[in-house]
């Protein structure tokens, strides 16, 4: 997605060899019109997948997920990073270990909101090691729903998450896939030309 790569080049800050700051449009500020464009591109990429529902993880996944749900005309459910173990019986849950934060989160969704009649598109903001996406995949599998694929706004292609999921035959679409990054320069993967 050209406009996204332009925004990354102009606005992102590379904080360390593996961490990129994109607060100006993804993790803190949101430009609604630009986010709607993101939703439209996800809609194009997944238009042949008969998606019935979108899931994402709070908080930064919500904006792109909602915009995609708007154009695909399907409901959106965001998983919670639960801090309590109550109501466990009514939930699908998975453990997600964050390498970045070195913490483990339990993510959850009420069983009422996901079932074997669903074909689910999983949306998230950033793909690094893929722990969050893998947790969401696990939850969809628990529910008996089908996985249409995963859509991420930015993939850090030099980390393993995307390729891990693809090797499990899960379709992963990134709107911008970073090949390398440093304070001086961010380069994108060739195939990601549109
Ligand atoms: P993973 O899911 O791909 O394994 O990533 P990891 O556990 O390492 O990431 C934990 C959090 O950090 C996630 O957000 C993820 O989106 C974010 N993250 C990972 N790499 C980067 C990066 O280079 N830049 C930025 N800005 N974020 C990164 P989260 O904890 O779920 O927070 P939220 O923003 O959704 O609230
Ligand atoms: Na996220
Ligand atoms: Na995030």
From TrEMBL:
Q: Which residues form the Phosphoribosyltransferase domain?
A: 32-157
Write out the annotated subcellular location: Cytoplasm
Q: Name one GO molecular function term.
A: xanthine phosphoribosyltransferase activity
Binding-site list for 5-phospho-alpha-D-ribose 1-diphosphate: 128-132
Keyword Cytoplasm assigned: yes
User: For this chain's UniProt record, which GO biological process terms are given?
Assistant: purine ribonucleoside salvage; xanthine metabolic process; XMP salvage
InterPro entries annotated for this entry?
Answer: PRTase-like, PRTase_dom, Pur/Pyrimidine_PRTase, Xanthine_PRibTrfase
Q: What is its main location?
A: cytoplasm
Q: Does the keyword Glycosyltransferase apply?
A: yes
Q: Which reaction does it catalyse?
A: XMP + diphosphate = xanthine + 5-phospho-alpha-D-ribose 1-diphosphate
Binding-site positions, xanthine: 27, 156
Annotated pathway:
Purine metabolism; XMP biosynthesis via salvage pathway; XMP from xanthine: step 1/1
Q: Name one GO cellular component term.
A: cytoplasm
The record's EC number reads 2.4.2.22
Keyword annotations from UniProtKB, A to Z: Cytoplasm, Glycosyltransferase, Purine salvage, Transferase
The function of this protein is: Converts the preformed base xanthine, a product of nucleic acid breakdown, to xanthosine 5'-monophosphate (XMP), so it can be reused for RNA or DNA synthesis.
Q: Hey, which family's this protein in?
A: Belongs to the purine/pyrimidine phosphoribosyltransferase family. Xpt subfamily.
Alphabetical list of HAMAP family matching this protein: XPRTase (MF_01184)
Q: How does it assemble?
A: Homodimer.
Output this protein's name.
Xanthine phosphoribosyltransferase
Organism equals: Salimicrobium flavidum
């Amino acid at each position: 997605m050209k406009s996204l790569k332009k925004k990354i080049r102009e606005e992102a800050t590379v904080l360390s060899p593996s961490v990129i700051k994109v607060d100006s449009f993804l993790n803190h500020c949101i430009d609604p019109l630009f986010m709607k464009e993101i939703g439209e591109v996800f809609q194009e990429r997944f238009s042949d997948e008969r998606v019935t529902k979108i899931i994402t993880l709070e908080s930064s996944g919500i904006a792109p997920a909602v915009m995609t749900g708007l154009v695909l005309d399907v409901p959106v459910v965001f998983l919670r990073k639960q801090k309590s173990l109550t109501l466990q019986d009514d939930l699908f849950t998975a453990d997600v270990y964050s390498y970045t934060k070195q913490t483990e989160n339990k993510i959850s969704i009420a069983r009422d909101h996901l079932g074997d009649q669903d074909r689910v598109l999983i949306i998230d903001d950033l793909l690094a090691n893929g722990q969050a996406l893998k947790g969401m995949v696990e939850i969809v599998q628990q529910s008996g729903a089908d996985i249409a694929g995963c859509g991420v706004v930015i993939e850090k292609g030099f980390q393993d998450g995307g390729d891990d999921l693809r090797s499990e035959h899960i379709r992963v679409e990134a709107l911008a896939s970073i090949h390398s990054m440093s304070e001086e320069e961010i380069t994108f993967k060739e195939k990601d030309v549109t």
